[in-house]
Amino acid sequence: MTLYTAMPLELVLDGFGQEPGPFIDLTIRGVTMRVLPIAPGIGKIERLLDAPLDCYLKPEFSPGQTVSYTEDTGNAANAWSTSDPAPFPA
Question: Which band of pLDDT confidence, cut at 50, 70 and 90, is reported for residue 19?
Fold first, then answer.
């Protein structure tokens, strides 16, 4: 492989051998997402895995939003923590 870049090689390959994670796959109100835990029971959305198409346009599902979940079950059907108090109608 040939890599042409003006940047120093140390910056380009920084973190190349590190694995991301640990991720948790959750289903919240019918949306399956991959979450990076940041605290017990709280995680940051990494990506949506399975969701209706309109969920991809909703800001509460954008990567970087925080969700709360229960760690023992890995399922957070009713738990949600974003800037909006109620992101969905019930």
Answer: confident
- With CA atoms as reference, report the closest residue to 71 among 37, 32, 34: 37
Contact 76, 28 (CB under 8 A): yes
Distance spanning both ends of the chain, measured CA to CA: 53
Angle, CA 85 vertex, CA 81 and CA 89 arms, to 5°: 105
Average pLDDT of the chain, as a whole number: 80
β-sheet with 24-28: strand ranges across: 24-28, 31-39, 42-50, 66-68
Q: Is the pLDDT of residue 41 over 60?
A: yes
Q: What are 26's two structure tokens?
A: 């959750």
pTM of the model: 0.61
